[in-house]
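Section 3.1: Structural characterization of target chains.
Under the original work plan, the team committed to producing a structural model for every single-chain target entering the pipeline before any wet-lab resources were allocated. The record below documents one such target. The sequence was received from the expression subgroup and is listed exactly as submitted; it comprises 414 residues.
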Amino acid sequence: MAPLGPPVGTGPLGKREARLAWGLLTPTIFSVSMVVILPLLAIFWISVKPVELADLRAPEVVLREDIRGDYTAVGDNANIRYRLRNSSQDQVITGVTFTDTVPAGLAVQSLDPRCTLDGRALFCDLGDWEPATRETLLIPVVVEQAYLDNGLRPQDSSAETTGTSSNILTNATFTFDNFKRVFNGDEFFGVLGVTLFYAVFGTIGALLVGLFAALLLNKTFRGQGILRGLYLFPYVSPIIAVAFAWLILFDPFSGSANALLVQMGVTPTAINFFGERPLALIMVTIFEIWRYFPLSFLFILARMQSIDTDMYEAADMDGASPFQKFWYLSVPQLLGILSVLFLLRFIWTFNKFDDIFLLTGGNAGTRTLTVNVYEQAFAISNIGAGAAVAVVIFGCLLLFSAFFFRFMSQEEGL
């Protein structure tokens, strides 16, 4: 049989529709590029630069100006003082100059050899400055009546400085020392192990608890809406509030949990839940499960309620047990949403920072890769090393995603 016509989307109309679709998508693509791709490229760039926190601000000449002296009448002597410094501790600034306007009524008596005066326009060429250079210029002046009348001060006029320096963020200096620092010794692999434990068990736990909660609420009963709202409480509550509530609850000195355990004879002394290894890691993982199971619960419950009930009725007629109905009927229908939730929750948990930082600050064996990014970039002020850890996180998640989709494509044909 001869083909009825060209394939869909290859004719003139299809091409116009494709151009229209790309035109409509262009703003979205541009927004995603600005919000996601450009910062990602910046992280890759910074990871191979020897950048510290102080380098984020380009070197500049900092100038302060005032007038010194005890002057109250015409003819008194004073000094215009300029205090200048190189803001960088390791970068040279070349061609340092500054210009200023001397206030009317101040008669300049002498100048520094590097300065010239054209009318009231002052220009000084201070040459090249080494890192952390400081210099003070004093220009002696005689006070005239005009100065006392106009009430101006030297700092009322804006002195302008110029200078050229090499910006570490934009120059051609590259290094792999940041990655060497990340992979140095056993520290990285210990942090990676903690991160994987936290991400894997936090993700699986949140899915299992969410699945259990969805099974409980998959039936219509009185008060179902109220109970569903209570299930959402951990997820919608402010993270700072719930984190400090857990810290107070499990405090070793005044926490209710420790007081109850001691009175029941479970433990002779109070337990430092968030300060002992490996209990602290287990506790932050439990917190992760408790806080984020409602998201899994909502998606799983929505999928359960969309499953056709006819096959459950047929299974009842065949004498299937509740477990058999769940395992052979419900689970196959839920595999799709469970796999997507596992992928998303693993990525989000792997990137989680605020929960652990608020609960333990990364101490007691709870230091994850994201906490390591913060410590490298801000605690140690090594932005390059922090960016290198962020690149490692991106690589780990990219490998996980590639493996996940390859596995899913084989198992479910995705």
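The CA atoms of residues 128 and 186 lie 45 Å apart.
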